[in-house]
Design a protein that fits this description.
Blueprint lengths: L1 H23 L2 H19 L3 H9 L4 H14 L5 H24 L8 H13 L7 H9 L3 H10 L14 H7 L3 H9 L6
Helix pairs in contact: 1-2, 2-3, 2-4, 3-5, 6-8, 7-8, 7-9, 8-10, 9-10
Length: 193
């Protein structure tokens, strides 16, 4: 149901952004709006939309953060500094309130024991070990989203453990430019990371 709401919101906002871009020829702002809409669509399509939204509100989505910051800078460019600071504070407070509401909702995003067991079976069928951190990092390096998702669901690897190179799986995914894989890993990191 949440996915439908996000979809309708995205579809409602798209004509406004096209009209604004057409009027002002500000294609940069239009690109930032598309980034935010794409982020909303990914959240709606993700298997754990509540966790993805929590990550977004907590500032753990680099693309969305950059788009929002650029839109804010453009919208407040000619505004006195006093008002710009007040608007920024209001935005932070709104995100904080939304994050608190999200945290107060019952947690339904935990991976079930059945899902964990099935992920382990699937990895074994693929010739992989659910507990092998090196195999997990290899899956991330080759941009294998299926294997990475199975390793995460199998709960046998530490997502924050560093490779011999000093990089985490999240670092590797970001360095590869695979934002979907980076988002998948980021939303499953332990709280406080």
């Amino acid at each position: 149901m949440k996915s439908l709401r996000i979809l309708f919101l995205a579809l409602a906002l798209l004509p406004m952004t096209v009209r604004a871009a057409d009027d002002s020829q500000d294609w940069t702002a239009f690109g930032h709006m598309l980034t935010l809409l794409q982020t909303a669509m990914r959240i709606g399509a993700s298997p754990f939309p509540d966790q993805a939204m929590t990550d977004l509100l907590a500032g753990r989505n680099y693309e969305a953060n950059q788009a929002i910051a650029s839109l804010f800078a453009g919208a407040t460019a000619e505004m006195p500094d006093e008002y710009r600071q007040r608007i920024a504070a209001m935005g932070r407070e709104m995100a904080s309130l939304a994050l608190k509401q999200q945290a107060a909702a019952p947690a339904t995003t935990a991976i079930s024991a059945d899902r964990t067991l099935q992920a382990r079976k699937d990895l074994t069928a693929m010739g992989l070990h659910y507990y092998d951190h090196n195999e997990f990092l290899d899956a991330v390096k080759r941009n294998d989203e299926l294997a990475t998702e199975l390793f995460i669901a199998g709960k046998g690897v530490n997502l924050t453990e560093r490779a011999w190179s000093g990089r985490t799986a999240l670092d590797i995914a970001r360095d590869n430019g695979n934002t979907r894989l980076a988002d998948l890993i980021a939303k499953n990191l332990p709280v406080g990371r």
